[in-house]
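User: I've been going back and forth on whether these two constructs are worth ordering. Before I decide, could you fold them both?

Assistant: Sure. I'll take them in the order you sent them. The first construct and its structure tokens:
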Amino acid sequence: MKQRNLGDLAVSELGLGCMGMSAFYGTADEGEAIATIHRAIELGCTFLDSAEMYGPFTNEELLGKALAGRRDEVTIATKFGIRFAPTEDNPTNRVLDGSPENVRRSIEGSLRRLGTDHVDLYYLHRVDPNTPIEETVGAMGDLVSEGKVRHLGLSEAAPETIRRAHAVHPITALQTEYSLWTRDPEAEILPTCRELGIGFVAYSPLGRGFLSGRFRSPDELEAGDFRRHGPRFQGSALEANLALAAKVEELAGEKGCTPGQLALGWVLAQGSDLVPIPGTKRRTYLEENLSAASVVLSSDDVARIDAELPSAVGDRYDSTGMATVDG
């Protein structure tokens, strides 16, 4: 697989989002998840994305187990900043914590669970409105000086926050949702990243599986799948978005690829400084996704896709989730 540069960090042009292997997308199968990670490495997909809150903690543990003896073959990205703070009324309560104390506490836990002495790309998962970004990134920069982290990243940060962070310590990558049905970063975030030489990592490039045609109704998903309650998968929004998915399927048929491959090919075509990280927990879907690297979209193809695809209807998250993005 070819590589792309996120700032000064070279990674495989397609990465693997590991979240669903442990959390949020229904039941987990550790054996298949580990086999999927190993197959990704065999195919040259060596940019692996996790976070301490996936599980929580169990996704990093899974990666550590899968990568035992193979650490040097991969680029590990993980995230911190969403801390579990259970209360009597809310046992799953989470808070945003970008404090220097939590920076230190989090990296030590991540390194232990991952079974490594360093993380290649360490993201602030969400911006903490109660801690100046300069303090958070300053503490993250200390980890670089100590060799525990090689590169710094932000996730779901606003342009001004990105600039302030980058002034404290070079930011290598910005991770934000981006796909055929989530085009928000094009207005300000992508231009800001390009101006500053920051790479862009696109999560959920398949619209959480919806654009690949893997489900058409939340009723088809497992009871524990958080997508069952997503605003884009409800009522009139779902009906409108089914038309978008149908258009993706139509265009993919003309190109001789699957809908998911077209969606990933479109993200790859947006620039060599973008790296999509489609998530999956099964080898079958992994192999299909990675084949998107061979889908060639001309400028005319991209222009047609942009012109003919309607915008998605509905917010990306519920109101609680939306309050944590663009920080």
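The second construct, handled the same way:
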Amino acid sequence: MDKAKQQHNNILLAIAGFTIVVAIVALIGFLALGRDPDIIQGEMEVEEYRVSSKVPGRILELRAKAGDFVRAGDTLAIIEAPEVQAKMSQAQSAVDAASAMEQMARNGARKEQIQAARQLLEQAKAGLEIAEKSYKRVQQLFDEDVVSAQKRDEAEAMYKSAQAQVKAAQSQYDMALNGARAEEKMSAAAQVGRARGAVREVNSYIRETVQVAQMDGEVTDVYPKVGELVGTGSPIMSIAVMDDQWATFNIREDQLKGVQIGSEVTVNVPAIDKETKMKVYYMKDKGSYAVWKATKASGQYDQKTFEVKARPTEKLEGVRPGMSVILAGGKK
């Protein structure tokens, strides 16, 4: 009987000891979990632009490859576009033709044409002089009743006709001296301007056959290979502007305490083992139910997630796009 009682007491003691150990472990775990900060992890990003051409053509040469650092103005790629060169020949020929027409309008008639107009004018003046003398003689004879009125009228008509011929010859001579009308000269000048505008347009396309870097940066991708055709606007390279860096975080709204536009936050970049300050410049809710979280099991309200972007307050050496950034101060 004593032996059974002793065994019963041992079992009770074992159960009590196990229960105490479980309770202690649970308490330690609860306290430890309660103290752990919620890690808010973001990612470094950089500004990136794509190099592309306005004209289609064949890649003749690539002067940069992925990983190269290029500076603004460096030649990146050369495109062969024979169609553009052909258009330049056409545009230049149009300029030459329009310039010749403008010069002709400004110079007026040729010397031979002016000489011929002068001779016609002199001939008309001579005819007028003879017609005037004849008319005066016939008029005098008419006054003396020697000739009839018919003869006088015929002489007067010849005189007036000669006057009209002189005026017409004078106009032809003046026109030959003055050259083209002002409107014709303006039209010719406008044609020259139009042709030169076409040349400038083709020159802009020719410049597009040599692609240069617009800003300093690092080549991240090269899409075509030498000899491949590229279309209008097709990307040739992507260049990351390494000086334009920021970090992007997705933060639940209950963790946004102290985070607002213009505020500075402390972050750690594990890859370079450096802690630094960043200034928040962008905040916007993600706008998707997939990133909401109920605050209680019954769900009194939902917590939305916000996209937050912050720039370093000082330049970070060695930081690469895609590196993790840890934001300090978050709690569950």
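Notes on the second construct follow. The first helix runs from residue 2 to 35. The two ends are 56 Å apart (CA to CA).
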